């Protein structure tokens, strides 16, 4: 249980990580709002913002499964769900890494 608390502390326990997760949340809300309001093909560009703020993990996950789907891509119902899962994984990994760096930078010298 100590390990779970430590991970949660690294992801949510410092201001830089929470700020990063807030930026991701705003980008995802923008993506979902643009996708739900407009039925035009240009709406797919709204997904660029959350992919950029969750890169490189989200882009790596999307690229890793592209050979599985082939040239036609993922099935229509699966693509948005997988994009959202890749963005969530990217947000958590990035927040964890930011938390590690924040803890390392905030540590007094000599420890």
Series of H and E elements: HHHHH
Rg is 17 Å
Structural class computed from helices and strand pairing: mainly alpha
Biggest β-sheet: count, sense, barrel?
A: none
Q: What's the count of strands?
A: 0
Q: Uncertain spans, ≥5 residues at pLDDT below 50? A: none
Mean pLDDT rating: 79
- The portion of residues assigned to helices is over 70%
- Count of alpha/pi helices: 5
Tell me what portion of residues adopts beta-strand conformation: under 5%
Principal-axis shape: elongated
How many domains? The number is 1
The span between the termini is 25 Å
What features would you describe in this structure?
With about 110 residues, this protein is an all-alpha fold. It has one domain (about 1-105). It is built from 5 helices and no strands. α1 (about 1-10) packs across α5, α2 (about 15-35) runs antiparallel to α5 and α4 runs antiparallel to α5 (about 80-105). The model has no long low-confidence stretch (mean pLDDT about 80).
